[in-house]
Write a structure and sequence with these properties.
- It is a single chain.
- By secondary structure, this protein is mainly α.
- The chain has one domain.
- 49% of the residues lie in helices and 9% in strands.
- The protein has a two-stranded parallel sheet with strand order 1-2.
- Strand 1, helix 4 and strand 2 form a beta-alpha-beta unit.
- Helix 3 crosses helix 4.
- The longest helix has 22 residues.
- It is globular, with a radius of gyration of 17 Å.
Length: 145
């Protein structure tokens, strides 16, 4: 559970207050640690290691894109927007119809993918520290390095 002194909670609160909008800090994307049953090291993996493991599995078997942890991360972000709308309805306040989303690093990936799959509600995306330009070339370079 985030604490009030958490920098992201503070920043999110300031953004909401200064713009007069609902602001949300979605944490534990991806949920971690994760231990993959097929991992011979049997270790608990965190952020970058989770991303790397699932990308390796996908590259080895590109028929199954659901191996990528980015899929559940994206789904969680879409569901978070659903929850915001449901909660606003329950509170009897104006329900946001559109969202501007942002995230840094791994959440930067999720910013891109969430905007791609929900381009009706997402009207702005601010990925931080995650450049997706020329993705195929960058991915090939990372994989071969």
């Amino acid at each position: 559970m985030p604490k009030p002194e958490d920098n992201f909670v503070t920043l999110t609160s300031m953004l909401g207050a200064s713009t007069g909008s609902i602001s949300v800090d979605l944490q534990t994307i991806p949920s971690e640690p994760i231990r993959f049953m097929a991992d011979p090291t049997e270790r608990n993996r965190l952020e970058d290691s989770i991303i790397a493991w699932t990308w390796r599995k996908f590259i080895d078997n590109p028929i199954n894109p659901y191996e990528l942890v980015l899929m559940p991360m994206t789904k969680a972000s879409v569901r978070a927007m659903d929850v915001v709308q449901q909660f606003a309805t329950q509170l009897g306040i104006p329900v946001p119809e559109t969202f501007v989303i942002s995230g840094a690093s791994k959440r930067g990936w999720t910013t891109w993918t969430t905007a791609a799959v929900d381009n009706v509600r997402v009207i702005g995306a601010i990925p931080i520290v995650m450049d997706m330009a020329d993705f195929q070339k960058v991915t090939k370079n990372r994989f071969t390095s």
